[in-house]
Write a structure and sequence with these properties.
The complex is a heterodimer. Chain A is mainly beta. In chain A, about 0% of the residues lie in helices and about 50% in strands. Chain B is an all-beta fold. In chain B, the strands form two sheets. In chain B, strands 2, 4, 5, 6, 9, 10 and 11 form a seven-stranded mixed β-sheet that branches. The N and C termini of chain B lie far apart (about 35 Å). The model of chain B has no long low-confidence stretch (mean pLDDT about 90). The chains are: A mainly beta, B mainly beta. At the A-B interface, β5 and β10 of A face β4, β5 and β9 of B.
């Protein structure tokens, strides 16, 4: 049973456009929701994260929107650039001294010049 | 600052062979993890170690064993490799305070093929 469901599996966006990736979770105990970015041949790296006490978090061109009642969260990449082409993973965990993370299946983003 | 170091980067095994994937971190993190990444499946947790001296099963532990040798090192062993274990393996660590709390730091991965 997949704890975190992610869509779409792949996404093609023109340079300057908005990329949107969606995730949904079932376990209401989750209270920490990070997004990871992975370039080919590399390990994932933390991009941005949100806790459910806020509905939105923005860092530069990257924004997480969080809907606690719907148990959904999404990543928006504004003004998408070819350098943003990567695989993006959402994740969820119960915050604490030790975090056991559950990952979505990943979205491969291709930003065309 | 090396972060999380994994070895080897690539490995080809025959069915039934054994091997150990090595992982070390230099960030003084308590928690360490082993994930496997398969197309369309995301990252699935194999085993984890919340602190030195403890290990526990994740989502897909069958066919694997781990050892938390000390605070720095966490190894993953395949006793009798099977083609279903063909995957990319990632080691990760996380801290429990400050800027490292809740943040996974990944190694660069091991691409394993079992023929």
């Amino acid at each position: 049973q997949q704890q975190v469901k992610q869509s779409p599996q792949s996404l093609i966006v023109q340079k300057g456009g908005i990329s949107i990736i969606n995730c949904a979770y079932e376990n209401t105990a989750f209270d920490y929701f990070p997004w990871y970015q992975q370039f080919p041949g590399k390990g994932p790296a933390l991009l941005i994260a949100i806790r459910p006490d806020v509905s939105e978090k923005k860092e530069g061109r990257f924004t997480i929107s969080f809907n606690k009642s719907a148990k959904q969260f999404s990543l928006h990449i504004m003004d998408s650039q070819p350098g943003d082409s990567a695989t993006y993973f959402c994740a969820a965990s119960k915050d604490g001294n030790f975090n056991k993370f559950y990952f979505g299946s990943g979205t491969k983003l291709n930003v065309k010049p | 600052n090396a972060g999380v170091t994994q070895t080897p980067k690539f490995q080809v095994l025959k069915t039934g062979q054994s091997m150990t994937l090595q992982c070390a971190q230099d960030m003084n993190h308590n928690s360490m993890y082993w994930y496997r990444q398969d197309p369309g499946m995301g990252l699935r947790l194999i085993y984890y170690s919340a602190s030195e001296g403890t290990t526990d099963k994740g989502e897909v532990p069958n066919g694997y064993n781990v050892s938390r040798l000390n605070k720095r090192e966490f190894s993953l062993r395949l006793e009798s490799a099977a083609p279903s274990q063909t995957s990319v393996y990632f080691c990760a660590s996380s801290g429990d305070r400050g800027g490292s709390r809740g943040k996974l730091f990944f190694g660069s991965g091991t691409q394993l093929s079992v023929l």
